[in-house]
Design a protein that fits this description.
The complex is a heterodimer of chains A (126) and B (226). Chain A is mostly helical and 126 residues long. Chain A contains six helices and no strands. Chain B is α+β, with helices and mostly antiparallel strands. Chain B contains eight helices and eight strands; from the N terminus they run ααααββααββββααββ.
Chain lengths: 126, 226
Amino acid sequence: MKRFWIALALLAALLCGTLLHTYSLGGFTRRLTHSLEGAQDLARADRWEEAHTLTEEALQTWSDRDVYLHVLLRHADTDQIYAGFQEVLALLESREYGEYAAANARLVTQIGLLSEAEQLTLKNVL
Amino acid sequence: MVIAFLRTIILYVFIIAGIRLMGKRQVGELEPSELVLALLIADLAAVPMQDFGIPLLTGLIPILTLLCLTMALSVLTMKSVKFRAVLCGRPSIIVENGKLRQGEMKKNRFTLDELMEELRMKGVTDLSTVKYAILETNGQLSVLPFAAQQPPTAQDLNLHLPEPGLPVVLINDGRLIRRNLLGRGFNDQWLEKQLKAHKVDRVQDVFLMTVDETNQVCLIEKEGGR
């Protein structure tokens, strides 16, 4: 019976670990999305420097978790988001609001989808 | 990751149910849960191995989940006969007193050709000589002939035969296995004597030499060794 309890404990540990990852990723992507939306508000108010700084900070936050993200998420998704950050930063420098807003919205959506795919919902399980 | 974890559990249970519904003959020599484990683990391991864009954990977490599930299920099947019957099924009697039980054959999707093939493989050609043929949970067919059809044993004939026990290999393809020689309580002098008795000069010329518990020696020389 000891083996049974060990197996159940491992299953419980796996479930807790995966739920913790989902919760942590949800919080992480919410923070990034919040920063990127804040940067867009600043850009709309013509405060491009501050928007650039805020976006760079968001990219730094993303890069700080690079190992964690690469270990747990599909590399194609993380690479796409990294490329999205670079595109948004380039458009912030060119100060083209229309193109920047479109690229930023795309990046926010990609980040949102990253977290959404990991959420424990019936839709995702099925 | 939690999605991968839950999907693994759902798929595992689903495939076990599928294998159980397919009948015992699909199982081969493994129990349904073991077969499912073997099928899934091979595939799960191959995906992250081939695609570097997928994190290794995507393969490791489902594999660990499967191993834990299998371990838990194996303990439950040992503890509960009912649970074992649900997971692995029950043996089915296909032939009883020389008569086919067609209902059982249909239930297990076991065809007449397969039955005859299995009987022939067991050395049985006449169905009427079979007392019981039982389709086991691992897909194997156990054949028990009538007592009158079974070969007589030494006990039936009141013979008292010596028990040879397990023969051990002393020389394997020209190599002496000293551990076995000493384990049987023999030494080099005894070995030399045995070689001389079989007209062999060297250990290197022997292909196989065994000795059983009654000290009966079997020696096969190497072809073209001398």
